[in-house]
Amino acid sequence: MKYVLLQVFRWFGLTEKLVRTRLDKFLRTHRTNSRTLDIGGGSGPYKKYFPNRVCIDIKGGEGVDVICDAHDLSVFKDGEFDCVLCTEVLEHLHTPQKAIDEMRRVLAVGGKLILTTRFIFPLHNIPGDYFRFTRYGLQYLLREWKRVEIKEETNTIDTFSVLFERLGFQTNMLFNKYMSWLWLVLAKIVPQLWWLVTREYGEVERKNKTKHIMTSGYYVVAEK
Q1: Strands 147-152 and 66-67, bridge-based pairing
Q2: Which of 5, 39, 88, 173 shows its CA 20 to 30 Å from the CA of 130?
Q3: pLDDT score recorded for residue 8
Q4: Domains of the chain by start residue, with CATH
């Protein structure tokens, strides 16, 4: 039954994750042949965009070149890399500032950090899920960097779509666990309601206009 449902979901595109699709597009835009430190890259889902990479992880496995902790990159020299890739890892680091500082140290002057992380997103890969980051928190962590670009992954309405997807993948429904596909259907419908939100504010008093008060995560490009 489970296999049949999975095939049906794939047929209708219900298993095509919004986050994964957008993440792939972002990383493809920043592909490089430069020497790259891939932090927590594991088997290397994005190694096609960063072929000259050295992958580190806290555990050995397929695609892992060096076993070490992102908080301590002392195995590498100062300025050894032209690029550091850190995708979906920062929220799993117990001391993010220490890790960010280490990433900066191993980058050559003018080198780039390409980073993605979560903001409004469910627990995942527990128990090693420590933080969620706002734009302003990321700006503070990267305050020593020369140039920092931060982009929201989703707009406010699309964020609900991401949450519905995760409900479909990470929960069972009352009476019948296979009914979770209803959340996946809602995830495809919700983005069509983008026009309902015409203005967003940074506080309930509605004094300061802003954009994307809810986003599933952020994409960052920072230069040393």
Answers
A1: unpaired
A2: 173
A3: 46
A4: 19-155+209-223 (3.40.50.150)
